[in-house]
Each structure stands twice: as C-alpha cells, then as structure tokens.
Amino acid sequence: MSWNDKRPMSPHLQIYDLPLAAKLSIFHRMTGAVLFMGLILITLMLIILANQTEYWPSIQLFLSSWLAKFIFIGFTFSLYYHLSNGIRHLFWDIGKGFSLEDTKRSNRIVIISSSLLTLFTWLLPQLID
Predict the structure, then answer these.
(1) pTM to 2 decimals?
(2) pLDDT-derived band of residue 3, with 50, 70 and 90 as boundaries?
(3) Which of 58, 74, 84, 96 has the highest local Cβ count within 10 Å?
C-alpha cells in the first residue's frame, strides 16, 4: 500500500524533541525494567550459591571484574533514580509540582540526587577504609 496523501505527516520522535520531563518519564520505565532484570540476576546468583557451592570461585571471579562493577553501578543508579523519580510522581499524584518552574526544578533534583546517591554508595566504602 503506497502513501498517496500529499499532506505532510505528523513529526515523529526522530524529529520532535521531547521535554526533559517526558524523557525522564521514559527513563523511569527503563530503570524499572533494569531493576527487574537485575533482581532476576541477583536471585539466580543466590540460588546457585545456596545449592552449588563449587561455583563460588567462578561467581567471585565475575563479581571482581569490571563488567560486574559496571552492571552493579548501573543497577544502583537505576535503583536511586527510580526511587527519586517515584517520589516526584507521588507529589504529582497529590497535585503538587505541576508548574513549569516546579517541573524544571524537580527534573534537576531527580538527576542530581540519583547521581549523588550512586556516587556516595560506591565511593563511601573506599573513603572509610
């Protein structure tokens, strides 16, 4: 079937630039999926460790790799981002923070708080040692 209508098509996501609040809302859904997959991974590792202890050296080797650290830092950021943005959504649910100024402020708060909490989580143990 060909497109015979000569009128212009509506702009799509490749053309239209979404507001930051909309992008953060999409990212909220993505971090929810990351958290779900991360919990499956952690659960599988715990099941393997509980039932087959001979795999512990292999899992320990993986956990000390850069890939595992990257995965767990991403999981931690997703957790804090999802928490911070979820709190913002709770305020929106009660009708607070809908003005443009409040939304811009809460955008910054969500990004900064999730980033700082992730940094503190991963750097604080090193600072204490």
Answers:
(1) 0.83
(2) low
(3) 84
pLDDT at 109: 98
Contact 125, 73 (CB under 8 A): no
Cα distances from 104 to residues 65, 99, 108, 116, in angstroms, run 38, 9, 7, 18
The burial of 84, by beta-carbon neighbours within 10 Å (0-12 exposed, 13-18 middle, 19 or more buried), is given as buried
Architecture of the domain spanning 20-128: Up-down Bundle (1.20)
Nearest to 29 by CA among 78, 66, 77: 78
Distance of CA 110 to the CA centre of its chain: 11
Q: Which pLDDT value is given to residue 1?
A: 54
pLDDT, one tens digit per residue, over 28-50 is 999 999 999 999 999 988 888 88
| Backbone torsion region of residue 96, taken as left when φ is above 0, otherwise alpha when ψ lies between -120 and 50, otherwise beta | beta
CA dist 72 and 59 (Å) reads 14
| Alpha helices (runs of H) in 1-52, residue ranges in sequence order | 20-51
106, 88 Cβ separation under 8 angstroms = yes
